[in-house]
Specification:
By secondary structure, the chain is of the alpha/beta class. It has 13 helices and 11 strands. It folds into 2 domains: 239 residues, 3-Layer(aba) Sandwich (Aspartate Aminotransferase, domain 2); 93 residues, Alpha-Beta Complex (Aspartate Aminotransferase, domain 1). It is globular, with a radius of gyration of 21 Å.
Length: 348
């Protein structure tokens, strides 16, 4: 019963087989000149309905975020994000290191940037004044670090403010497939049609061995990314290691099937947990992360039963909250076992 993180999940068999096939073919061109990398870009152009998008595979989500942002902001710039955003809270100043820019945190409920607060922050009289950092980009997380999801109109509201001042819009899409599965719109509607310029699209949490792809919907800054990726040490010589994963990931909707299953398992957990006395959700469950308050007797029983999940801070005094994350390979039987232990603890 491992609900610690979707990072701890394995890889989908179709992706493992795709990598194996890619390395059984003999020598191929290196540094992204291979057929898999080119095929992934063509496939993404179809998926996102954008014939001029440019895509670059990288191995690590942090690299995808910060190298993309480095193309959106000069070193004297400011990048606006939510305080819980991965780039602000869990990437060890990588964004500042790679961009040279300053992160400006704009709060909002349930992990989402408040559009009014962003508009006010962007309206400060700093533009063109040499003494001040220059606003340059806004970064949103989809799904958020609280497991909530931006609807297209919410992204558009933030993009409107950003566009008014000439800022670029970046999306950290480590769980983009989970968000897309929840919203039910097209990938285009959740990204560039809502104002996103560059997307860091994750696959590692959703069935890949380890692969991400940075997608530029505006190709203008894309060439710069090539040099930044190489300079940052993230250009793989055997790029087929990444691209063959991504090729399988996007084939026949595998990425959406995986995300759909993870989301369904989260809803299954929620449906069983929330009727139990003493439990409550910290945030709406809209993707595959659950933030829940558990009574001590339930938590103790689950720990005795060797269930695995993370403690999480709650804003409400005296409560013990926890994070549970489901994955593409979560077994429904494990969910049911978890719920059975919790229910039995209350009966005792």
């Amino acid at each position: 019963m491992n609900f610690r993180s979707d990072n701890e999940a394995g890889a989908h068999p179709a992706i493992i087989e795709a990598v194996s096939r890619a390395f059984r073919t003999g020598p191929v061109h290196s540094y992204g000149a291979d057929e898999w990398t080119q095929k992934v870009e063509r496939r993404l152009r179809d998926i996102f309905e954008k014939p001029d998008l440019v895509a670059y595979p990288v191995a690590v989500g942090t690299a995808a975020n910060v190298l993309a942002l480095a193309c959106c902001s000069p070193p004297w710039g400011s990048i606006f994000c939510h305080p819980t955003a991965h780039i602000a809270a869990e990437e060890t100043n990588a964004a500042e290191f790679y961009t040279g820019a300053r992160l400006v945190r704009v709060d909002g409920a349930a992990g989402k940037i408040d559009p009014k607060a962003l508009a006010e922050a962007l309206a400060q009289p700093v533009y063109g004044v040499v003494h001040f950092s220059q606003p340059s980009a806004v970064s949103v997380t989809q799904a958020t670090e609280n497991g909530t999801v931006y609807a297209p109109e919410e992204i558009a509201a933030l993009s409107t403010s950003a566009r008014r001042h000439g800022l670029k819009m970046h999306m950290d899409g480590a769980r983009f497939a989970n968000a897309l599965s929840f919203v039910g719109c097209s990938p285009a509607e959740l990204t560039w049609k809502a104002g996103i310029d560059v997307l860091s699209l994750g696959a590692t949490k959703n069935g890949a061995m380890g692969a991400e792809v940075v997608i530029f919907f505006d190709p203008a800054p894309a060439k710069e990314f090539e040099y930044r990726r190489k300079r940052g040490g993230h250009l793989l010589s055997k790029m087929r290691l990444l691209s063959s994963q991504l090729d399988a990931y996007f084939t026949d909707g595998l990425w959406l099937d995986n995300a759909r299953h993870a989301n369904q398992m989260a809803r299954r957990l929620v449906a069983g947990l929330t009727p139990m006395p003493g439990t409550s959700l910290l945030y709406p469950v809209e993707a595959n992360e659950i933030f829940v308050v558990l009574p001590a007797k339930i938590h103790d029983a689950l720990q005795a039963g060797r269930a695995q999940y993370h403690p999480w801070p709650s804003d409400r005094p005296g409560e013990r909250a926890f994070r549970l994350v489901t994955a593409f390979d979560t077994d429904p039987a494990e969910v049911d076992k978890f719920l059975a232990i919790a229910k039995e603890s209350l009966a005792r």
